[in-house]
Amino acid sequence: MDYALEIKGLEKCYSKGNKVLKGIDIKIEEGIVAGFIGMNGAGKTTTIKSILGLVVPNAGEIKIFGKSFKENEKEIKNRIGIVFDNGYLYEDLKLSEMKQIFAAAYTKWDEDNYKKYIKNFNLNEKQKVKELSKGMKMKFSLALALSHHADLLIMDEPTSGLDPKIRKEFLDIIREFIIDVGKTVFFSTHITTDLDKIADQIIMLNAGEVIFNKDKDILIDEHALVKGDKTILTNDNRKWFVALEERGFSFEGLTNQRERVRQEMKQALCERPTIEDIMVAYMGR
User: Which sequence ranges are marked TM in the entry (predicted)?
Assistant: First the structure.
């Protein structure tokens, strides 16, 4: 099996006793969209910065397309495109000037490809970065990320603050990118509805630890939102819930033992959860 990204035993401490990443392991196959979720401070951004060599981890190994990042940094960076929410574009530069900086960094830069994206996204290269709306800035970031034929696209909160129309356009572009055989996306976001639409795999990080790393459909099928009368709860079946809220005469909770609940709590109502339902339940444990 070929992996686009392999992380093993990754640890990061920013200060004594403050371990942000606690030996995490992640594997992402080539040709999929992997959603990376978790609350603020879970360690998602530190993980991404470690992958990109912007943060030096205290322990662990990172391989991209089977090669050590440390030993093959230049080659690997040519195969990666990045889209961050903010902070890596120079606001006072024109788009054309920003493009020149990016183009010089990649040996496979494709000017024709870049011009195609600029035209399709209705971007004006004479504008300064700071004059772009949030949506147009994200489109420009995508144009830069995709114009050197990247094989792995790494995105950190790219749809945060975008209106629904622009978000849909953004996700459509990602789908087109994936259609190109072998392309992979590592998508960190707190907008889990985006992942409901396009993700193949879901990885959840909480307090520096991987809580789950599963195929999206399997993850959702294993869980259920359960509602019912409190009288059917027992000390034993309460243990079947990841999260359980009791109020008045009723209860509502999330179980990771869907089939058992269906078989043994027949009076309860079981519903299909969203990724957000699952994430919130595990965050509260």
Answer: none
